[in-house]
Amino acid sequence: MQDNAPAGIPAPGSQSGERIVAVLGSMAQTSGFMGMGRKQYTLVFTDRRVIFAQLTSAMLKAVIEEARSEAKDAGGGFLKQWGAQIGASMSYAKRYWEMAPEAVLAENAGNFALTKGEIRDVRYKQGMIGDDTTNNSPDMVIIKTASDKYKLEVQGATLATAREAFGRAGIG
Prior knowledge:
Blueprint (H helix, E strand, L loop, with lengths): L8 E2 L8 E13 L5 E10 L2 E7 L1 H17 L4 H13 L10 H6 L5 E4 L3 E7 L14 E6 L3 E6 L4 H10 L4
Antiparallel strand pairs: 1-2, 2-3, 2-8, 3-4, 4-5, 6-7, 7-8
Helix pairs in contact: 1-2
């Protein structure tokens, strides 16, 4: 899901003047046998690069627990707490609008960035909904650099939203 904020606003605390122009949450990179290895990312687009901010299970667990606890402290019952948990996990990416790109990159050892110049090509692959004889296939964004290929499943947004985020960054 793309979490919108005004484009082109200098990121808070950014020493370089780098500007966040789009945030795209719920992207998954799969690897290994039948895609069993899965890493969740939020893509933070700046005017200079794309930062892959990894969402670990420990980070997700902490944000969900915090939301549940806040709902409970506010007098919310089970359903309010459950709703807060779902809302927190779905809107986790919004927090990156408030961070400096350098802080996003340093947040987790699994985070990395690609400069706009490193990206050679971006392809968008429409998934298919299967039936009794065929499996579902997710929408995909494929980013190619000179040395790597990043295949990302679009999970919390549409392919059009992903295309829009790359476009706002001047990529693809």
